[in-house]
Amino acid sequence: MATIVNKGKPMLSFWQIWNMSFGFFGIQFGFELQNSNVSRIFETLGANKDEIPLLWIAAPVTGLVVQPIIGYLSDRTWHPYWGRRRPFFFIGAILATIALFVMPNSSVLWVAGGMLWILDASINISMEPFRAFVGDKLNSQQRTTGFAMQSFFIGVGSVIAALLPWIFTNWFHFSNTAAAGEIPDSVKYSFYIGGIAFIVAVFYTVFTTDEFPPEDMEAFKKEVKEAGFMDGFRETFVGIFKMPKTMAQLAIVQFFTWFGLFAMWIYSTNAVTSTKYNMKVEKALVNKMETALQAKLQSPQLDAKESKIFKSLQADINEINEYRANQNPVTISINLANYFEENKENTLSAVEVSELKRVKHEYNDGADWLNVCSSVRNGVAALFAFIIPLIALRTNRKITHMICLLIGGIGLISIYFVTTPQLIILSMAMVGIAWASILSMPYAILSGSLPANKMGYYMGVFNFFIVIPQIVAATILGFFTMKVFGADTLNTIVLGGVSMILAGLLALRVEDKD
User: Fold this and answer.
1) CA geometry: angle 16, 22, 28, nearest 5 deg
2) 464-479 vs 455-462: helix crossing angle, rounded to 10
3) Rounded distance, CA 261 to CA 259, Å?
4) Which of 120, 431, 433, 456 is deepest in the core (most CB within 10 A)?
């Protein structure tokens, strides 16, 4: 039975659309801190290249479960004061803020991985109903503007969030390096600011925006009473096989789009720091580190925790020996630099320790610069969000989306060819054009083909095709990076660009009814 909702929707003012979209500023603040810094946190805590995608799998798996369920539940929620979607905004904001304060204080890898599950679930509780919120409140004439406004706040929130580690380091002189197994203060305080921004922005929308009640309240109550939670769970996951035609076509576009984005999020930190910054040391130093590790691993006094640390370090040495044996000097991991820079066994000379300190600074400077480039990407997205409706008026929405995805894919591929870190800004600006469209066009096209009474439900099902490609990426990118690309993460970024270009070409097949 269909949920009964209002069919006639009034034209909203600019400020009403502003208020209802402002919460996305905080949501994206948290989301960008996660995307820009989680690989850095994982690497700092000792993750190897092939482990990073598997650790990232927490985010898409959480989305796969949480998003459609929250969409289904929010379709069947109504409170005289809180409305339909706003209870989920409120709860998700509180949980996400707690997670943002805890995440950067993770002391071991498994805690960081667990906190990613919690953080991503909390963000999804708030974010999923926000997509349906536009469909609930705006008529077809204003829907593209509504999603563009969301894209604007997503861009602004992302700009600030991505810049924060660099700002704390360069303006307030917080350290961007730390002892082995610790997260730098510049990253920690960025997450704290993110937690505050998340809850303040979402609460602003919650308390300044109202919602339309169901048109037939008795019919709504009857449906809620008759449909149990297991019915909802079953309907949600069966929905993937009952998608409207436009939704099925967009799903394929989304698959290749988000595969490309996930490749960028997982490996851009490693790709940029290891190829555009000087993280090389003499092979003789690598040999010294390997000798020290072998001695440690053969020690009978080695406990389980130490064994795990030293095996992770040895895995990094093995990668060098397998893929870069003939290189001298040779690039090393931040994992090796962090551990041996402390020189606990006094096996290294002062000059060698100084070299490892330099590598640590190169890595963290590179990670900070990538955050700046991500900020530019998001700034371009925020500005381009207002240009997209104009392009769509002169062409149509699917051609607009195709053009933006092609530009973004070329931007990702161009990272392979840039010779200085400064040029990555241009690459990320191109990705920003795609990002603006990714955050608005698919939803603007989709919402016109969906029944209004199931907007939240179908938006949740549609998000399967954001999380499924991320699960696929997390499952196979480690293998591709190590076995196909010879541990060169820059090639993995190129693969992401090719995937995004393919998504753009497939956008032409989409039927846009509205």
Assistant:
1) 155
2) 10
3) 6
4) 431
C-alpha radius of gyration, the chain, whole number: 24
Residue 13, both tokens = 């003012």
Token couple for 154: 């997503």
**Beta-carbon contacts of residue 217 (< 8 Å; ≥ 6 apart):** 78
**pTM for the predicted model, two decimal places:** 0.79
3 state DSSP class of 128: helix
Comparing CA positions, the residue from 502, 455, 506 lying closest to residue 244 is 455
- pLDDT digit string, tens, across residues 204-234: 998 998 877 766 566 666 666 666 556 656 6
Task: Provide the sign of the torsion angle of the four alpha carbons 92, 95, 99, 101, taken in this order.
Answer: positive
What phi and psi, each to the nearest 5 degrees, are found at residue 211? -130, 155
How many Å apart are CA 511 and CA 246, to the nearest integer?
Answer: 5
Which are the contacts of 247, defined by CB distance < 8 A and separation ≥ 6?
A: 446, 449, 450, 458, 461, 462
Closest by Cα among 443, 438, 464, 471 to 66: 464
What is the chain's length?
Answer: 514
